[in-house]
Amino acid sequence: MKKILISTLFVFVFVFTIAFSAIAEENTPTTNTINTTIAPKKSIAPKKIDLTCVKTAVEKRETAIIATVDVYATSIKSAFETRKTALLAAWGITDQKARNIAIKNAFAKNRVAKRTALRIYKKTRLTTWQNFTKARIACKAPATGEDMSTDMNFND
What we know:
By secondary structure, the protein is mainly alpha-helical. The chain has a domain at 51-139. It has helices at residues 2-26, 51-90, 96-138. Helix 2 packs antiparallel against helix 3. It is flat. The protein starts with a helix and ends in an 18-residue tail after the last helix.
């Protein structure tokens, strides 16, 4: 066991030594002895962005996201109301086995309803952002740097 460990250690040391020496050789400064002239860069005129178009696209995106969150919240609330009704009905059952099955079913249906709501929310949100990206490109606007993952975080 010790022999295998020691030989493995030597192999790693050897590999790292070679790797670091190669990196050190790549990073060594070199001098260029050839005199060359560099042509000045051509100035590229910035693209004309249709700000009204982008503004409209952002408004559509934000309105759609708000509507998506509303639908998601309504779905979650409905799932909990359905669970409440099912649990109240389950606690009205006198047979313990049947009551336990009804309670488990209430929670299982709630879990499925919440997952379905989240799946629909994610899909709709993604579609909204994809539509915004297409609209932004049509407006000849560069990437905005806006982070679409912030729509998923309700804690901010």
